[in-house]
Write a structure and sequence with these properties.
The complex is a heterodimer. Chain A has 14 helices and 5 strands. Chain A is α/β, with parallel strands linked by helices. Chain A folds into 2 domains: about 1-40 and about 170-365, no CATH class; about 45-145, abc type-2 transporter like fold. In chain A, α2 (about 20-40) crosses α9 (about 215-245), α7 runs parallel beside α10 (about 250-275) and α7 (about 170-200) runs antiparallel to α11 (about 280-295). The relative contact order of chain A is 0.11. By secondary structure, chain B is an alpha/beta fold. Chain B has 2 domains: about 1-40 and about 170-370, no CATH class; about 50-155, abc type-2 transporter like domain (abc type-2 transporter like fold, 3-Layer(aba) Sandwich), CATH 3.40.1710.10. A 4-stranded mixed beta sheet of chain B has the order 2-1-3-4. Chain B is elongated, with a radius of gyration of 28 Å. The two termini of chain B are about 15 Å apart. The mean pLDDT of chain B is about 85. Classes of the chains: A alpha/beta, B alpha/beta. Chains A and B meet through α2, α4, α5, β4 and α6 of A and α2, α4, β4, α6 and β5 of B.
Chain lengths: ~375, ~375
């Protein structure tokens, strides 16, 4: 026990002395929360739209006003009235161009068929799809207003209800993901580098000549990082609560338990990486490749797993973050209890036991 | 003047080629990343899991379900509840288990209302956890229902919008993402290489050894940078080849323009890398700072989501992000065939950033080394 404490103390001194890394360790999680919360906003609004009005009537102006008054569009900078939408788009810096050809007012008043032309810049795919939807919805509203009051339009009406995140805030979706990523970064990346550094500078041998067993050494070195990971995790959650009002509906203790399993899984990956490489640079690269990349891309953090090819879906099943994400989102947003989360937590536990066993074995044979 | 420079480049090249492990990492990593990202990143929302609670069970209600299933938007999970009771409590459970993302509730009397030309209400419940998917799913549902209504009632809006997509008519998100991935790879790799390489030599003490030779610190610096530029160009070529041949991403514009502007962009990333190596003492610190800078620039560059979606204060900050301009350039050239005139603003911004940052960092680092 005493040996472990000494090793841990030594590691803590190391961490505290390196102020520049310390700043990153604690500032980075918060900045990432701010960035993901604000920058990754999938809610598409304020799209620059250019309207070429060749009809020049009261009706066409009403329609234009309806478009620009909505929160979806704003007036792109005035462009010479070319006849070619692509030219208008480039000149006005618009993401879409709406053409109202002459005869629009007559068509609206006589209820005859008429077509408006909408040209959309398809290079931003998600924005393009949204623009199309917004435009037809706005036109629909415009036409409804022209019906005599009290008219009951037949057809299917949708009454919608959104559960767990009624305001559809993107940040509520991303913040639990950031917790998963930060924990992983601290646990896997930092530990693999810290062990690789001792190997590279030759101080590992010195430590091993001291009366400690490799396992004591390992535990002592890792304990401070578990502590840092937990502090960072809480920091992100607290920060997100204050800044984005991300809810926390479920059980805090359940989250802490699963977090411990997750952190130790990530630590195992860090140990595995560090036993296999000789330099810090390689340790960092492997740790990034093995942990950060799959956790950001394949865990469902941003992109839905079920839209991926089958091979990647299988890979996502051995990524610890996949399960941890399900648990964090479930607990924070939906208030899911143990009965629902038993399956992902169980898978995570299996991953942890397997990885930890391999990692400790390898560390003992390679280092000890 | 040239001989020491060529000597340094040769030394770097030999050193570079000898480290097989690092070499493999440097070239395999981008390809893996590109393949992974190319498949994983799907910004289009498809195949949402839809629970259907059909309490009407008529020909029309079945037609509605079929209409929702027709596109690639919804996959109806096999759940047609026979009772008329509102099953929302079951829904909660299903959402929590992640077995369904949306639910359609068709109340009894749906067909009767519809066929007697009355509005027929249906309920739509969405799991809002994934805000983006929920929003898009509700949008799809609205569109499908509008079309279904006009098909059934025979009433069609007389004014319609005919949409046309320029540049990427199939709406393939890959065509949009791959240029972005190439830009981020270029940024991260050159930044990390530069930041870590110089710190590493300093950490190992080999920097002094080189500096006692008649090589000036600037020659040494430019020799190293030449190496990084060559590596960066190779990686860019490699990842573009994979993107074009494997993912069939179009390349409409001029490759030469892209190469020239990439070199311009590299001045910024190399400059930032050098700057990081002047403010850090260990490789670990250098890596952290380089990585942090990459993430920050990546997220605010419009790579994932359009800059226009961000809050205004953040949009202003993105004006200071060099990658934002490079992303516009690479997407413009590859997808739209943009030329110098179309990109003049971006080029100007990159040139200013590049020259200022590069000169500042070279002077600072050169002074440090000497």
């Amino acid at each position: 026990m005493r040996q472990i404490r000494f090793i841990a103390q030594k590691e803590i001194y190391h961490i505290l002395r390196d102020v520049r890394s310390l700043v990153i360790i604690f500032v980075m999680p918060m900045l990432m929360t701010v960035l993901y919360g604000y920058a990754i906003n999938m809610d598409i609004e304020h799209v620059p739209l250019a309207i070429v009005d060749q009809d020049q009537t009261a009706e066409s102006r009403t329609l234009i006003e309806r478009f620009y008054r909505s929160r979806y569009f704003f007036r792109a900078k005035a462009a010479p009235e070319y006849n070619d939408p692509e030219q208008v788009m480039r000149a006005a810096g618009a993401a879409a161009v709406l053409f109202i050809r002459p005869g629009f007012e007559r068509a609206v008043q006589n209820k005859t068929d008429f077509e408006l032309g909408l040209t959309i810049d398809g290079s931003e795919t998600s924005q393009a799809a949204a623009v199309q939807g917004y435009a037809s919805a706005l036109l629909n509203e415009f036409l409804q207003d022209h019906l005599p009051p009290g008219t009951e339009v037949p057809g299917v009406r949708l009454s919608q209800q959104v559960l767990y995140n009624p305001d559809l805030q993107s940040s509520h979706f991303f913040v639990p993901g950031i917790v998963a990523i930060i924990l992983l970064m601290i646990s896997a990346l930092l530990t693999s580098i810290t062990i690789a550094r001792e190997k590279e500078t030759g101080t590992l041998e010195q430590l091993l000549t001291a009366p400690v067993t490799p396992i004591q050494l390992l535990i002592g070195k890792l304990l401070p990082y578990i502590g840092i990971a937990f502090i960072d995790g809480l920091l992100v959650i607290g920060f997100a609560k204050v800044l984005f009002a991300v809810p926390f509906v479920g059980s805090f203790w359940l989250l802490l338990v699963v977090e411990l399993i997750y952190v130790t899984t990530a630590l195992s990956i860090g140990i595995l990486v560090s036993t296999g490489v000789a330099t810090q640079q390689l340790a960092m690269q492997y740790a990034l490749l093995l942990t950060m990349l799959p956790s950001v891309m394949l865990s469902g953090f941003i992109f839905a797993i079920k839209n991926m090819p089958v091979v990647l879906q299988m890979v996502s099943r051995i990524v610890p973050a996949t399960y941890f994400l399900k648990v964090v989102r479930g607990i924070m947003l939906k208030g899911s209890g143990f009965e629902v989360l038993a399956a992902p937590a169980g898978f995570l536990l299996i991953l942890q036991v397997v990885l930890l066993t391999i990692a400790v074995r390898r560390f003992r044979t390679r280092i000890g | 003047m040239w001989r020491p420079y060529i000597g340094v480049v040769r030394k770097e090249l030999i050193q570079f080629l000898r480290d097989k492990n690092a070499l493999r990492m440097l070239f395999v990593m981008p390809v893996i990343q590109l393949l992974l990202l190319g498949y994983a990143i799907q910004t289009d929302v498809k195949k949402l899991w839809l629970d259907v609670y059909d309490a009407d069970r008529t020909e029309l209600s079945r037609q509605l379900i079929a209409a929702l299933q027709a596109g690639d938007y919804f996959v109806v999970t096999d759940r047609q509840v026979q009772s008329e009771r509102t099953p929302v409590w079951q829904l909660d459970e299903r959402f929590k288990r992640g077995e369904a993302e949306m639910a359609l509730i068709i109340p009894p009397g749906f067909a009767e209302q519809l066929s007697t030309n009355h509005p027929a209400h249906v309920g739509w419940v969405a799991d809002g956890t994934d805000a983006n998917a929920a929003r898009i799913g509700i949008g799809y549902a609205g569109q499908i229902l509008r079309k279904f209504s006009s098909d059934v009632t025979g009433m069609r809006p007389f004014v319609e919008i005919r949409s046309e997509f320029l540049y990427n008519p199939e709406g393939e998100s890959r065509n949009f993402m791959v240029p972005g991935i190439v830009a981020t790879l270029l940024t991260m790799i050159t930044l990390m290489l530069t930041a870590m390489a110089i710190v590493r030599e300093r950490e190992l003490g080999t920097l002094e050894q080189v500096l006692v030779t008649p090589v000036t610190s600037f020659t040494l610096l430019f020799g190293k940078l030449t190496m990084f530029v060559m590596a960066a160009m190779l990686i860019m070529g490699l990842s573009l080849t994979v993107g074009i041949l494997w993912f069939r991403v179009p390349f409409v514009g001029s490759p030469i323009l892209l190469v020239v502007l990439s070199l311009l962009y590299l001045m910024t990333t190399l400059g930032v890398g050098m700057f990081i190596s002047t403010i850090t003492a260990t490789q670990q610190q250098a890596m952290f700072y380089a990585w942090f800078f990459s993430i920050f620039t990546m997220l605010t560059s419009g790579y994932f989501t359009p800059v226009a979606n961000m809050p205004i204060w953040l949009q202003r900050i993105t004006l200071l992000n060099p990658m934002r301009y490079f992303i516009e350039i690479i997407r413009g050239i590859m997808m739209k065939g943009a030329g110098v005139a179309d990109l003049s603003h971006d080029i100007l911004a990159l040139a200013v950033f590049g020259i200022v940052i590069f000169t500042f960092s070279t002077l600072r680092l050169g002074k440090r080394l000497a």
